[in-house]
Amino acid sequence: MEQDLTTERSGTFSNRPDAGSHSDKKVFVKTYGCQMNVYDSQRMADALAADGYRPTDVIEEADLVLLNTCHIREKAAEKVYSELGRIRVLKDERAKRGRETVIGVAGCVAQAEGREILRRAPVVDLVIGPQTYHRLPSVVTRARSGEKIVETEYAIEDKFEHLPAPARSTVRNRGVTAFLTVQEGCDKFCTFCVVPYTRGAEVSRPVSQVVAEAERLAEAGVREVTLLGQNVNAWHGEGPDGKEWGLGRLLFRLAEIPGLDRLRYTTSHPRDMDDELIAAHRDLRTLMPYLHLPVQAGSDRILKAMNRKHTGADYLRLIERIRAARPDIAMSGDFIVGFPGETDEDFEDTMRIVRDVNYAQAFSFKYSPRPGTPGADMEAQVPDVVKDERLQRLQALLSEQQRAFAQSLVGSDIDLLLEKPGRQAGQLVGRSPWLQPVVVDESAGAIGDIIRVRVTQAGSHSLFCEPVREAGLMEAARGDSV
Ligand code: 5AD
Ligand code: SF4
User: Fold this and answer.
1) CA of 4 to the centre of ligand 1 (A)
2) pLDDT attached to residue 15
3) How far is the CA of 428 from the centre of ligand 1 (A)?
């Protein structure tokens, strides 16, 4: 399942127009939820750019407002409706100034609720599900002529073949790291999860499409690509050799692309970690030593009720094999507390598995019954106060592990990809191999450089580092000063 950061982002694509664009139509996209939505928002912006829409970060000046929504937990879905309330005021104000504003809801809430959105929020003009984003420009044109549109059918055509590639300058503006969706949907049907209903059945993009997109990104200066999929390690496709490839083989191929120095992928299911993928972790230095592998719970009884199709022991054995192949790998996970029927003892099993694995990073959530999923109809729903208490204990343990991992790096040298200016003047930020934000002085290098740095301090969310000068250079520097 996709790692969900429950964040909201607006303008995650560049707000700088491509040179040569002469349109004055503007689109504001707000992205909720996971990285797949971030990727989708960019592709929607690309499709609209071809139709003359320039992205903006200022909602008041947008002729088209798109909310790319998340349905994974109730809270995430409700946020959309409160945002639509605010947008209604904005649309009225613009109308008074004679400006038309088209309001669209995309993403998983659109797919799950469809026409219901128009009923609850009449301000909305168009509802479009994730499978039909390539039709967005024509849908927007129809909406502008006053039609209310719900486009949530699964398209027969391949949307990726119809979505335009971003201009080179757009890729460059978006930075030196990029997402690349290789797989969508899920056939696993975990009993708590809406994804199989909102994103549909598992579909993999063909090898040639993925390689071509990765090459285009690298040519435009991207140095790190994160492959995305709700079940990314279930990706499979026919290779140019006529054989069936899995994600491991694909990673070996992508590692050959000049300029792509860092590869990541997320999110994986324990049942799809095959030998070749583990071998990729062993053999590829470009594959970052970080793995997001959700277990969700530690109790076998609960795992069974969740339809996870693995036990706690299976998961621990798997991690042992991965660590044997790549000893410096850092583990990340997702956890749900308070799934129906979870007893204190079951919850202690979750705490135990967390202690056994020792996570560098993790995301944990209170179980949220989602309409239409089997979990929502199960008996023995756990009271909210119990969920709260369990979540607090779990998060305290996970934060302690995360802090200890960061602390263990102090004094060591790591590779850092410089991504963008920091919040404070004079700083640059990037990511460690283990995905931690890293702060260095701007004199350390230029955006896009991968530099060697020494960790001097571990803060609560970031590492602070100083550049390590090569031994030879240090000698020279010392010589100079004498
Ligand atoms: N309630 C709480 N958490 C959920 N997740 C998915 N569905 C639910 C739900 N109904 C969590 C899982 C998943 C992550 C993205 O969100 O841990 O891995
Ligand atoms: Fe992940 Fe399970 Fe949801 Fe599929 S059903 S996306 S495997 S949590």
Assistant:
1) 8
2) 40
3) 33
On average, the pLDDT of the chain sits at: 92
Residue 199 CB less than 6 A away from ligand 1: no
- Per the omega criterion (within 30 degrees of 0), is the bond before 267 cis? yes
- Is the beta carbon of 319 within 6 A of some atom in ligand 2? no
Q: What integer pLDDT is reported at residue 315 of this predicted model?
A: 98
Ligand lying closest to the C-alpha of residue 364: 1
pLDDT value at 1 more than 50: no
Mean pLDDT of 339-368: 98
What is the average pLDDT across 337-364? 98
Ligand 2 pocket test: pick from 195, 273, 365, 368 the residue with the most ligand atoms within 8 Å of its Cβ.
195
What the chain holds in terms of domains, given with CATH numbers, is: 25-151 (3.40.50.12160), 159-408 (3.80.30.20), 413-481 (2.40.50.140)
**pTM exceeds 0.85 for this model:** yes
Q: Which atom of ligand 1 is nearest to the CA of 296?
A: 17
Going by pLDDT thresholds of 50, 70 and 90, the confidence category of residue 469 is confident
365: CA distance to ligand 1 center in Å? Answer: 7
Q: What percent of the chain has a predicted confidence (pLDDT) above 90?
A: 85
pLDDT at 474: 45
Residue 143 Cβ inside 6 Å of ligand 1? The answer reads no
* Statement: residue 277 has pLDDT above 90: yes
What integer pLDDT is reported at residue 141 of this predicted model? 95
pLDDT of residue 471: 53
pLDDT of residue 50: 87
